UniProtKB/TrEMBL annotation:
Gene3D superfamilies: 2.30.42.10, Trypsin-like serine proteases (2.40.10.10). The lineage of its organism: Bacteria, Bacillati, Bacillota, Clostridia, Eubacteriales. Residues 87-97 have a biased composition (Acidic residues). PROSITE patterns: PDZ. One of its GO terms (molecular function) is serine-type endopeptidase activity. Residues 1-40, 76-98, 424-456 are annotated as: Disordered. The chain crosses the membrane at residues 47-72. Residues 439-449 have a biased composition (Low complexity). This is Trypsin-like peptidase domain-containing protein. Keywords: Hydrolase, Membrane, Protease, Transmembrane, Transmembrane helix. It comes from the Bacteria. The keyword Membrane applies. It holds the Pfam family PDZ_2.
Length: 466
């Protein structure tokens, strides 16, 4: 199911052709002075003249790490992780027979373990605590190439969320797979079932029938600071298994747009390569604080080398998605019930308006209508964050839940108006509906920008990340 479209987010961009008349931003009360300006599938390698390569990390390699919940002595964890062996070859086949395999689903726990040792661990201590909680993921999918069926194999990384076999990975690692296998650090292999996935968040949840697994400890991505040390463990190139790389948090809330899906990510300079997709990014307490997902590499047209640009999905967002997928089978995203058109800087300057998404229509009975949103409003703030584009708003909507009450600031008739909105739940759409909506509603000529300092490379990022 292709969910890589703008309509998946709770406010809809409008096609320029649909509003050729009556779309003057000066109508409907939008007037006044300007406001100061202020983030698949399997990896496919592509080479362009500019030599910009963006690797989606999940196409090759599985990974594994040991994790311990709070209170387990590190020396004991190191000792346990050192004792590894290959499981009896007959065991997986006997316990995982395809004909008898059935997914047994349970609710996720209300709370997850967190390591709080009171001091930062060394990198080797983090590795010892974590390496048994990371898994390798291999998939097979039947494809049709020039009328001939072929089996395409791919692999990536995941990590164990609960001791009874729930596993988080990237959606692009498992998307389209006919079969999914999970391999533990010990060498044991299990058939896995896809509990659910959402391409717009690039998060999927798998389930294997196992007990007594070592689950990861989970941190709080909302408390991260730029400069904090982090480590990633994965399988670069699909061959160098259980590799750990280190670095720092280079930036927070980087808006990365992939196939029309804006997402706020953690930026890190820890080496992330093909094979790391879906794997954990750890802080120095041994807690997972992100899910590695993508990177920039290569060089620009001027020959400038691009290095050290890796990205991870914040764990708080990943867990919210995972819990929804397990409980409901889909993500209960927040929904405003409006359609939007980005007001570009040139138009905004011409009419002395602030830059931001302009409301083109309001759905009857929606939370936006109830809150008093009007056609012609320019949205300039949402939940305490400045908004300058549809992507800004869509990215912020992914951070909140249906039922949350937030403040939204709009520019109307030369004034800033603060509205209180209790968010609706996003309606579920079928694949056919989504594809149709994308064709008719995608903004025409609507440009989007990467964060300051990225130059104009977003088109290339979108080109590779698919």
């Amino acid at each position: 199911m292709d969910e890589n479209n703008m309509m998946h987010y709770d406010c809809e961009p409008m096609d320029g052709s649909e509003n050729s008349q009556g779309s003057d931003p000066m109508q409907n009360g939008a007037a006044g002075g300007p406001r100061k300006p202020e983030r698949k599938g399997k990896i496919t390698g592509k080479i362009v003249a500019l030599l910009l390569v963006v690797a989606v990390l999940g196409s090759v390699g599985g990974s594994a790490l040991t994790a311990a919940i709070a209170g387990i002595h590190r020396d004991k964890a190191a000792e346990d992780s050192a004792v590894t062996g290959t499981a009896d070859e007959d065991t997986p086949e006997e316990s995982q027979d395809q004909a008898d395999y059935q997914l047994v689903s349970h609710s996720l726990p209300d709370t997850l373990p967190t390591n709080d040792t009171g001091k930062s661990l060394t990198e080797s201590e983090v590795y010892a605590l974590a390496v048994n909680s990371v898994v390798g993921i291999t998939t097979e999918a039947t494809t049709n190439v020039f009328g001939q069926q072929a089996v395409a194999a791919s692999s990536g990384t995941g990590f164990i969320l609960t001791e009874d076999g729930y596993i988080i990975t990237n959606q692009h690692v498992v998307e389209g797979a006919d079969t999914i296998k999970v391999t533990l650090y010990s060498g044991e292999s299990y058939d896995a079932e896809l509990v659910g996935g959402d391409a717009s968040y690039d998060i999927a949840v798998l389930k294997i029938e196992a007990e007594g697994l070592q689950a990861v400890s989970v941190g709080d991505s909302d408390t991260l600071q730029v400069g904090e040390a982090v480590v990633a463990i994965g399988n670069p190139l699909g061959e160098l298994t259980f590799t750990m790389t280190n670095g720092i948090i280079s930036a927070l809330n980087r808006e990365i747009n992939t196939d029309g899906n804006p997402q706020n990510m953690i930026q890190t300079n820890a080496a992330i390569n093909s094979g790391n997709s879906g794997g954990p990014l750890f802080d120095m307490d041994g807690n997972v604080i992100g899910v590695t997902s993508a990177k920039y590499s290569g060089s620009t047209s001027t020959g400038t080398t691009i290095e050290g640009l890796g990205f991870a999905i914040p764990i708080n967002e990943a867990l919210r998605v995972a819990y929804d997928l397990v409980e409901y089978g889909y993500v209960k995203g927040a929904y405003l019930g409006i359609s939007l058109r980005d007001l570009d800087s040139n138009t905004a300057s011409y009419y002395s308006l602030p830059v931001g998404p302009r409301v083109e229509s309001v759905t009857e009975g929606s939370c936006a209508e109830t809150a008093g949103v009007q056609v012609g409003d320019i949205i300039i703030g949402f939940n305490g964050v400045d908004v300058e584009s549809y992507n800004d708003l869509a990215g912020q909507l992914k951070k909140v839940n249906a039922g949350d009450t937030v403040e939204m600031v709009v520019y109307r008739s030369g004034e800033e108006v603060t509205l209180t909105v209790t968010l609706d739940e996003k309606p579920q759409t079928t694949e056919t509906e989504t594809e149709t909506e994308t064709e008719t509603q995608q903004p025409e000529g609507n440009t989007q920008e990467l964060p300051e300092g990225f130059g104009g490379m977003e088109d290339f990022f979108n080109y590779f990340y698919r």
